[in-house]
Design goal:
The protein starts with 13 loop residues before the first helix and ends with a strand. It is an alpha/beta fold. Strand 4, helix 11 and strand 5 (about 200-205) form a beta-alpha-beta unit. A seven-stranded mixed sheet has the order 6-5-4-7-8-10-9, sandwiched between helices. A three-stranded antiparallel sheet has the order 1-3-2. The chain is globular. Helix content is about 50%, strand content about 15%. The chain folds into two domains: about 5-105, Winged helix-like DNA-binding domain superfamily/Winged helix DNA-binding domain (Arc Repressor Mutant, subunit A, Orthogonal Bundle), CATH 1.10.10.10; about 155-290 and about 325-355, Vaccinia Virus protein VP39 (Rossmann fold), CATH 3.40.50.150.
Length: about 350
């Protein structure tokens, strides 16, 4: 399976990223690190959008600062750096313009990648040295941003939604429970894709459920989705809730792997208990598929970086359970006694199980 998600990257070579001399490697590292944060700032402050709106006329840093309510002095130097160190921006006298490649700022996946890498999980890198030396520990001294993690999860799982909806319809499912619903973004998307669908959002975090109520109200779906506070790792809590009596399927995207922190048996036990308490129901499991060292070495560098980030940095540095390969997932399903009905090959593999 190809891991490439950005078509324009196919023209780049490994040497363009790694550098073929120590000096090239060093400066490539420096420039990439700085540009990542600068582009993130342009997006978060609206400066990128304002540059796009200005079009061929461009704008001065003062004009952009006034429009976006940011510090003009700082912005001038950010834009000047990018105009010399990147291909997305050019400077003519005192005016700045997006180039044709400036559209990369707004390409699908760019903002999403920044949300995951900086907003949601930036702390695991900024605190890496004290974490490595044992001075700090994730979860005790620092932790990921919950709101950004919810947004990142929604981004990563969204491409699977049409497949899930089609499968729900194929099996005649009209009521689905989303396990670990967060801000209910997935349930909103489901309701928009399938007007006949009703849902139940389950989350253990009161803040997430509060945000979910607001999200559902704004979207006009409060009457189609119930919300309950419960631990998805304790299905007995769910079995006691009347809201779940008519649920025909569970959706669990990017959540179950976290229980691997307690070993494979913890995940197997959870699936067994869902089977015992909700026999015959469908269980949609969306999880990142771990790659082997051999798979990574065979893939071009530009196709390795995203899955490498998920598998060897994002998950282990935040002390989540590590992802598993597809064969390992199959063994877990077999040991749990659940039936694997279908699997969709994607960055986040989508397994359809029958409890």
């Amino acid at each position: 399976m190809s891991m490439n998600t950005e078509s324009e990257t196919s023209t780049l070579r490994d040497d363009d990223l790694l550098g073929d001399t120590p000096a090239a490697w060093r400066e490539g590292m420096r420039n990439g690190y700085l540009r990542w944060f600068l582009v993130h700032a342009l997006m978060q402050t609206g400066v990128g959008d304002e540059l796009r709106r200005c079009g061929a006329g461009g704008a001065t840093s003062s004009e952009l600062a006034a429009a976006c309510k940011v510090d003009g002095y700082l912005l001038l130097h950010v834009l000047t750096y990018l105009s010399h160190a990147d291909r997305i921006l050019r400077k003519q006298r005192d005016r700045f313009f997006l180039t044709e490649r400036g559209e990369w700022l707004f390409a699908p996946g760019m903002k999403d990648a920044l949300i995951v890498s900086i907003d949601a999980y930036g702390c695991i890198l900024s605190e890496l040295v004290p974490a490595l030396t044992g001075e700090k520990r994730y979860g005790r001294d620092f932790k990921r941003r919950g709101d950004a993690v919810a947004a990142a999860s929604l981004i990563a799982t969204r491409p699977n939604y049409p497949f899930i909806i089609d499968t729900l319809r194929r099996y005649g499912v009209s009521t689905v429970a989303d396990l670990g619903c967060g801000a209910a973004g997935l349930l909103v998307d489901f309701c928009q894709l399938a007007p006949e669908l009703r849902g139940v959002g389950v989350d253990v975090d009161a803040g997430s459920l509060s945000e979910a109520r607001r999200t559902l109200a704004e979207a006009g779906f409060s009457d189609r989705v119930a919300l309950i506070r419960a631990d998805i790792g304790a299905p007995e809590e769910l079995a006691a809730r009347p809201e779940l009596e008519r649920v025909q399927a569970f959706n669990c995207c990017g959540v179950l792997h976290e229980f691997f922190r307690d070993g494979d048996e913890a995940v197997i036990d959870i699936l067994r208990r869902y089977k015992q308490l909700f026999p015959g129901r469908y269980f949609f499991l969306g999880e990142f598929r771990a790659r082997t060292d051999e798979e990574y070495q065979k893939a071009p560098l530009l196709e390795r970086t995203r899955p490498l980030w998920f598998q060897h940095l994002m998950h282990p540095l935040s002390l989540q359970g590590l992802p598993r390969t597809r064969d390992e997932w199959r063994q877990i399903f077999e040991r749990a006694g659940v039936q694997l009905v279908d699997v969709r090959d994607y960055f986040l593999d989508q397994y359809v199980l029958k409890l």
